[in-house]
Amino acid sequence: QGQLVESGGGLVQAxxxxxxxxxxxxxxxxxxxxxxxxxxxxKQRELVATDSIGGYTNYADSVKGRFTFSxxxxxxxxYLQMNNLKPEDTAVYYCNARHRKTxxxxxxQGTQVTVSS
Length: 117
Hints:
By secondary structure, the chain is an all-beta fold. It has strands at residues 4-7, 10-13, 18-24, 31-39, 46-51, 57-59, 67-72, 77-82, 91-99, 105-107, 111-116. The strands form two sheets. Strands 2, 4, 5, 6, 9, 10 and 11 form a seven-stranded mixed β-sheet that branches. The radius of gyration is 13 Å and the shape is globular. It starts with a strand and ends with a strand.
């Protein structure tokens, strides 16, 4: 339990789309909440979206209406669909999850997203 592996980052032009994936070890519904964070060069890591089982998904104001968080219990994957990307979305994106039983907090290794203007 506790391993998170992100993928799907890359270079895209402004206005384009990317879908980030996060593969979790074990059942993803063993983790709550789960979320995505990002860290741009020279800046602190910030929340992008967090999702609580049976609750709601919380998005940063800067991504509302453009990014969508989803979970797939069949594949134990979580996703971040990112549309209408902007240069200011450039950052390393991290998957995050707290185990419901142990309350341990896990982070993935990060995936780079670069948006060119």
